[in-house]
Design goal:
Blueprint lengths: L1 H17 L8 E8 L2 E9 L4 E15 L7 E15 L3 H6 L10 E10 L15 E13 L5 E14 L10 E19 L2
Antiparallel strand pairs: 1-2, 1-8, 2-3, 3-4, 4-5, 5-6, 6-7, 7-8
């Protein structure tokens, strides 16, 4: 009995010490789209459960109009974002043998986004002021079946700061913002560890 117990303990220790826990992917390259834009992003592994996402794309917005049929429409403005993401349940999903490829897990993040005043697609003479936002968010990311297609949703409340002095205004302005996103995407390139 002692030999069986000793062998079991040694086997468990060996398995724990030498098993390779996957955690987040070392590098992911994604193309995502949603109701309000399109984005290209890369996630780079920092630790077993933290990845840094860098992203560039277009956020959509609605201009003009009123309830009586005024001129309104949709426009696209460039956005650059940086997000450290903590996939807090990726280890738990892995131990339960759930699919964690392409970082399929729940996450907390703080999205840092910059909307530059470069150009606007969709409406002449429309200007988007230089602005920066800081939005803590909770989200979920999952693969669709066993493919490289994925969906992602998240929600957060944060702060947006407008750089208005450069446009001749006396003061800069800021506001509290709600961020709700729903995206579908495809992972083009996946580099494993």
């Amino acid at each position: 009995m002692k030999k069986v117990l000793f062998t079991s303990v040694v086997t468990m220790c060996f398995t724990i010490c030498f098993s390779q826990s996957k955690g987040v992917e070392s590098s992911l390259f994604n193309l995502q789209t949603g109701l309000l834009g399109a984005w290209v992003n890369n996630e780079t592994k920092l630790t077993e459960s933290i990845a840094l996402r860098s992203e560039i794309g277009f956020d959509a917005g609605i201009f003009g109009g009123d309830v009586y049929g005024g001129n309104s429409g949709l426009f696209l403005a460039p956005v650059i974002s940086l997000e450290p993401r903590w996939y807090y349940n990726i280890k738990k999903r892995e131990t339960k043998n759930k699919n964690i490829s392409n970082n399929s897990a729940n996450f907390f993040t703080t999205s840092i986004s910059y909307h530059p005043d470069w150009f606007v697609v969709g409406k002449d003479n429309l200007q988007v002021f230089n602005q920066m936002s800081f939005i803590p968010k909770w989200g979920i990311r999952r693969n669709i079946a066993n493919s490289n297609f994925n969906f992602e949703t998240g929600i957060g409340i944060g702060y947006r700061y407008y750089f208005l002095k450069q446009y001749g205004y006396i003061d800069n302005d800021s506001e509290i913002v709600l961020d709700l996103h729903l995206r579908i995407g495809y992972t083009f390139k996946k580099n494993n560890k």
